[in-house]
Design a protein that fits this description.
- The chain is mainly α.
- Helices cover 82% and strands 0% of the residues.
- It has a single domain, classed as Hemerythrin-like (Four Helix Bundle (Hemerythrin (Met), subunit A), Up-down Bundle), CATH 1.20.120.50.
- The protein has helices at residues 12-30, 34-65, 71-91, 97-138.
- Helix 1 packs antiparallel against helix 4 (97-138), helix 2 runs parallel beside helix 4 and helix 3 packs antiparallel against helix 4.
- The longest helix is centred in the C-terminal third of the chain and has 42 residues, at 97-138.
- Bound molecules: fe (ii) ion (FE2) (2 copies).
């Protein structure tokens, strides 16, 4: 399934990874029994912890390589989120309806907003830098 336009950065690896996250959220919100919800809750929290570390690292490598002017702010946002996820996992080591709601409403909302605002800007920047490099190679 394609990625909604508002989440698209135009950078293939970034869009692919964001798509994974959005698929996961859809699965979580589609889980309609307590048992299914509970399973998805456990899976999503574990996945998120692994995902953010890996995904943020990759974005940060690009920011460094291309000397992204907003690097410091963007990295701080990532750090905030890693802490938020860590705290959430400490507070919700097992499933609860309240935890699932917080996960959907706060934890997952945060990352969607981050994609729409910060990652979009980063995507525009990376595309610009890549275009410059291609033009320079063509001389
Ligand atoms: Fe991202
Ligand atoms: Fe980001």
């Amino acid at each position: 399934m394609g990625l909604e336009k508002k989440y698209k950065t135009g950078i293939l690896w970034q869009d692919t990874q964001h798509r994974q996250l959005i698929d996961l959220m859809e699965k979580l919100s589609d889980a309609d029994t307590r048992e299914a919800k509970s399973k998805m809750f456990t899976y999503t929290t574990a996945f998120l912890a692994m995902y953010v570390t890996h995904h943020f690292k990759l974005e940060e490598q690009y920011m460094k390589a291309y000397e992204y002017p907003d690097l410091e702010f963007h990295v701080k946002e990532h750090q905030k989120y890693i802490n938020l996820v860590k705290q959430f996992r400490r507070d919700h080591s097992s499933f609860s309806g309240e935890g699932a709601l917080f996960l959907e409403k706060n934890i997952l909302e945060w990352i969607l907003n981050h994609i729409m605002e910060n990652d979009q800007k980063l995507g525009v920047f990376i595309r610009g830098e890549e275009r410059k490099r291609i033009l320079a190679e063509e001389g």
